[in-house]
Amino acid sequence: MPFKKLHPHLQEKLEIQEITTPTAFQKKSIPLIKSGANVYCMAPKDSGKTTSLILTTIQKLKCEAVGDAPRAVVLVENKAKALELYDAFLKFTKHTTLRVYVGYEELHIDVQKSEIFMGTDILISTPKSMNKLFLLNGVHISHLKIFSIDDAEFLTQQSAYKAMMSIAQSMKKCQYVIYSEKMHPKLKRFESYFMEYPKTVTLK
């Protein structure tokens, strides 16, 4: 059972939210992501992909703050998705020292730089905003452990795809996990760039 092997804090939060049984997708994906592999996670809507993302990210960081630089990055399509995911993370990071920060294009880049500099563990961002942070040296990624992309279909759009490719070129080695409903040729193409030896979880 994937939940039984998670940090006790996460088990407690799942219990509070009355999530007692992993979905079929979570049974397949959580152990694989915990192993440290690069993973493509393909499953329909409401399969538990976002909860898997949150649990494995927090598990990777051992439920505690370390240093000032982000150790986990989550890429999302837009501001609305970023804020929604931020709220979802807070349900699990409450009563831990973990710091979650959310950035998006509408928030001035200098504000983002200064606030991230004050210390963050999990950075939620959009492709354009993240790319701009990298180009301006606004975020240090030397301690990055895991880079996840939620509902990654948006990366099939040319501007988002280009931003992601630029981000990947700035990155040092870390674990990548891509969540989407189905595999798209553009997502598959990432294998040639940063998704080294990926595993695939598919739930139809």
Automatic annotation (TrEMBL):
This is Helicase ATP-binding domain-containing protein. InterPro entries: DEAD/DEAH_box_helicase_dom, Helicase_ATP-bd, P-loop_NTPase. PANTHER family: RNA HELICASE (PTHR24031). Keywords: ATP-binding, Hydrolase, Nucleotide-binding. GO terms for molecular function: ATP binding; hydrolase activity; nucleic acid binding. The keyword RNA-binding does not apply. Pfam families: DEAD. The keyword NADP does not apply. It comes from Patiriisocius marinistellae. Residues 30-201 form the Helicase ATP-binding domain.
